[in-house]
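Example for tutorial group B:
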Protein backbone atom coordinates (compact mmCIF):
# COMPACT_ATOMS: atom_id res chain seq x y z
CA UNK A 1 0.00 0.00 0.00
CA UNK A 2 1.27 3.45 -0.87
CA UNK A 3 1.71 6.13 1.78
CA UNK A 4 1.40 9.85 0.98
CA UNK A 5 3.25 12.60 2.83
CA UNK A 6 4.15 16.26 2.61
CA UNK A 7 7.48 17.28 4.08
CA UNK A 8 9.82 20.25 3.96
CA UNK A 9 12.39 19.83 1.18
CA UNK A 10 15.23 20.35 3.67
CA UNK A 11 13.96 17.43 5.76
CA UNK A 12 13.64 15.19 2.71
CA UNK A 13 17.17 16.06 1.60
CA UNK A 14 18.60 15.27 5.03
CA UNK A 15 16.36 12.27 5.88
CA UNK A 16 14.92 10.43 2.91
CA UNK A 17 12.55 7.50 3.52
CA UNK A 18 14.10 4.05 3.75
CA UNK A 19 12.41 2.06 1.01
CA UNK A 20 10.93 2.62 -2.44
CA UNK A 21 9.72 6.19 -2.77
CA UNK A 22 9.16 9.12 -5.14
CA UNK A 23 9.01 12.84 -4.45
CA UNK A 24 8.07 16.01 -6.26
CA UNK A 25 8.49 19.63 -5.27
CA UNK A 26 5.09 21.29 -4.98
CA UNK A 27 4.79 23.95 -7.71
CA UNK A 28 3.18 26.62 -5.53
CA UNK A 29 5.35 26.08 -2.45
CA UNK A 30 8.82 25.00 -3.59
CA UNK A 31 10.02 24.46 -0.02
CA UNK A 32 7.58 21.53 0.35
CA UNK A 33 7.68 18.09 -1.29
CA UNK A 34 4.94 15.57 -1.86
CA UNK A 35 6.36 12.11 -1.13
CA UNK A 36 4.84 8.78 -2.13
CA UNK A 37 6.31 5.73 -0.42
CA UNK A 38 5.50 2.47 -2.19
CA UNK A 39 7.20 0.24 0.35
CA UNK A 40 9.28 0.53 3.48
CA UNK A 41 12.41 -1.50 4.21
CA UNK A 42 11.00 -2.26 7.67
CA UNK A 43 8.23 -1.14 10.02
CA UNK A 44 10.82 0.44 12.30
CA UNK A 45 12.18 2.51 9.39
CA UNK A 46 8.65 3.72 8.68
CA UNK A 47 8.01 4.56 12.33
CA UNK A 48 11.30 6.46 12.64
CA UNK A 49 10.70 8.53 9.50
CA UNK A 50 7.09 9.30 10.38
CA UNK A 51 8.22 10.46 13.84
CA UNK A 52 10.41 13.21 12.32
CA UNK A 53 9.08 16.71 12.94
CA UNK A 54 7.64 18.05 9.70
CA UNK A 55 6.51 14.72 8.21
CA UNK A 56 2.76 14.90 7.55
CA UNK A 57 0.99 11.76 6.37
CA UNK A 58 -2.15 12.02 4.23
CA UNK A 59 -4.38 9.06 5.01
CA UNK A 60 -6.51 7.67 2.21
CA UNK A 61 -9.54 7.57 4.49
CA UNK A 62 -9.38 11.38 4.74
CA UNK A 63 -9.39 12.04 1.00
CA UNK A 64 -13.08 13.04 1.15
CA UNK A 65 -12.25 15.99 3.43
CA UNK A 66 -11.77 19.50 2.13
CA UNK A 67 -8.12 20.13 1.26
CA UNK A 68 -6.41 22.54 3.68
CA UNK A 69 -5.42 25.99 2.42
CA UNK A 70 -1.71 25.07 2.38
CA UNK A 71 -2.40 22.16 0.03
CA UNK A 72 -4.41 24.40 -2.27
CA UNK A 73 -1.56 26.93 -2.37
CA UNK A 74 0.97 24.18 -3.00
CA UNK A 75 -0.87 23.02 -6.12
CA UNK A 76 -2.64 26.20 -7.25
CA UNK A 77 -0.36 26.46 -10.32
CA UNK A 78 -1.79 23.10 -11.44
CA UNK A 79 -5.41 24.21 -10.95
CA UNK A 80 -6.15 23.56 -7.27
CA UNK A 81 -8.90 25.81 -5.92
CA UNK A 82 -10.52 26.41 -2.53
CA UNK A 83 -13.21 23.92 -1.64
CA UNK A 84 -11.61 20.96 -3.42
CA UNK A 85 -11.40 17.71 -1.51
CA UNK A 86 -8.07 15.99 -1.01
CA UNK A 87 -9.23 13.35 -3.51
CA UNK A 88 -9.84 16.03 -6.15
CA UNK A 89 -6.49 17.60 -5.37
CA UNK A 90 -4.65 14.29 -5.67
CA UNK A 91 -6.44 13.64 -8.99
CA UNK A 92 -5.02 16.93 -10.26
CA UNK A 93 -1.55 15.97 -9.10
CA UNK A 94 -1.59 12.45 -10.56
CA UNK A 95 -2.60 13.86 -13.97
CA UNK A 96 0.87 15.47 -14.04
CA UNK A 97 2.75 13.04 -11.80
CA UNK A 98 1.70 9.38 -12.17
CA UNK A 99 3.54 8.29 -8.99
CA UNK A 100 0.68 9.88 -7.05
CA UNK A 101 -1.77 7.23 -8.26
CA UNK A 102 -3.32 5.13 -5.47
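The residue assignment follows.
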Amino acid sequence: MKHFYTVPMALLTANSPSGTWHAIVTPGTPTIALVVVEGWNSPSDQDAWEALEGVNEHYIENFGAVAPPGAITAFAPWGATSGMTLRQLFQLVRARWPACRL
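The mean pLDDT is 95. Compare this with the pattern of hydrophobic and polar residues in the output above.
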